[in-house]
Amino acid sequence: MTAMSIYIWFPGTAREALTFYQGVFGGELELHTLADMGRTDGPADAIGHGMLVGPVSFYGTDAVGDDEPLDMRGASVALLGTADPETLTRWYEALCEGGTVLDALQERPWGASDGQVVDRFGLRWLIGFEHGASGQ
User: Does residue 79 have a pLDDT over 90?
Assistant: First the structure.
């Protein structure tokens, strides 16, 4: 079975952003510059393709030419129940560093906890977990 993945066009910050996310989530990071790919449509050291593979996996690149960089409105990357509560709390706190908290991670009246943050690179994250759920 395949899973949906997100591919992000960063405004020249792909290397910094993907390295940051590797620090938050762990995993293996591959970065390929435009020069590595034989491309001449942007700066040689710009990221033409980056891939983070781990507990949270996704792709990224630097926006070049007519590419539109990330402008996240009306959507979020949801990490709901994707790890144990301690791990999700740690990820939330790390994403808050330099970002903007939209909704603090907190227990809700229905018994779950969640929160939202726009990280320093402009990604909006929704992180949450159920209390007492199986395996947590």
Answer: yes
The residues that bridge with 62 in the sheet, in sequence order, are 10
- Yes or no: say if 102 and 116 are a contact pair by the CB < 8 Å rule: yes
Q: pLDDT per residue over 34-43, tens digit each?
A: 999 999 999 9
Domains and CATH numbers, the chain: 7-62 (3.30.720), 77-130 (3.10.180.10)
The strand ranges marked E within 2-87 are: 7-10, 28-33, 47-53, 58-62, 77-80
Asked whether 47 and 14 are in contact (CB, 8 A), the reply is yes
Measured CA to CA, the distance from residue 48 to residue 113 in angstroms comes to 37
Q: Which residues contact 135 (CB under 8 A, 6 or more apart)?
A: 84
Tell me the C-alpha distance between 107 and 71, whole Å.
29
- Give the tokens for residue 22: 């590797």
